[in-house]
Amino acid sequence: MKKKIVFVSLFIMIAIVLTSCAPIALNNKDVSTLSVMGKGEVYLVPDIAYINVGTRSEALEVTTALSENNKQAKSLADALTNMGIDPADIQTTAFNVYPIQSYGMDGLPMEMKYVVENTVSVKVRDLPRLGEFLDTVVRSGANQIYGISFDVQDRKAAEAEARKLAVQDATAKAIEIAGISGTELGEVHNITVYSYLGGQPIYDGKGGGFATEASAPISAGQLLITAEANITYKLK
User: Which residues contact 229 (CB under 8 A, 6 or more apart)?
Assistant: First the structure.
């Protein structure tokens, strides 16, 4: 009796294993595919700039350095307002207070000075006046200007166009390769598309370099929007 029960149980287990393996074997049948990559590029003229502008003061007393820096920062803020910069486009990015120890020729410590730095990030929307803006902030007391980066306010249309060009490029390559190899394209098996902003033109400089009679010569250049499409086709 026990042998009969063991035999029936073994038969049921074998039947379950065979049943579960059948669809797997069916789904894993070999399918010939062709994978291609396409690329699309769209150039844009920047219409906004981001600039880090700061004031730096140094004195023997921390209170003196802070007072001087506050005057510089106030003058800078007034200049930004007079230039028509929206307060929403001005953001404080750093405020630092730290000591600087100087040493004599003999290596012994001398006087201790204190430094106060106040840096703001400014979004400039009127690019034709960018050079004038830089001159104005420097003359108002800004003595630190860090990298200027350029961008566009709305890049959705450009990204969509770049993706379209990437898919078209990939499709054209697939048709060409299929024709050369004597095969025929079937349905799309998989597609991946993504876009990104290429290297941004950046201007690096310090405040003193802009204190000239003429506006600072700044060129925004162009921005590159790039998209890539990876498409896999089934072959008939």
Answer: 37, 38, 39, 40, 163, 166, 167, 169, 170, 191, 192, 193
Q: Answer whether 229's CB lies under 8 Å from 55's CB.
A: no
For residues 93 and 112, what is the distance between their CA atoms, to the nearest angstrom? 26
CATH for 28-46+153-201+220-236 (3.40.190.80, 3.30.110.170, 3.90.550.10, 3.40.109.10): 3.30.110.170
pLDDT score at 70: 95
Summarised one tens digit per residue, pLDDT across range 26-63 is: 344 667 899 999 999 999 989 999 999 999 999 999 99
pLDDT in tens, 172-212: 999 999 999 999 999 999 999 998 876 555 444 444 333 34
Joined tokens for residue 11: 């038969």
Homologous superfamily of 48-151 in CATH?
A: Protein of unknown function (DUF541), domain 2 (3.30.70.2970)
Boundaries of every domain in the chain:
28-46+153-201+220-236, 48-151
pTM for the model stands at: 0.64
- The pLDDT, as a whole number, for residue 1 is 47
Residues ≥6 apart with Cβ < 8 Å to 205: 145, 148
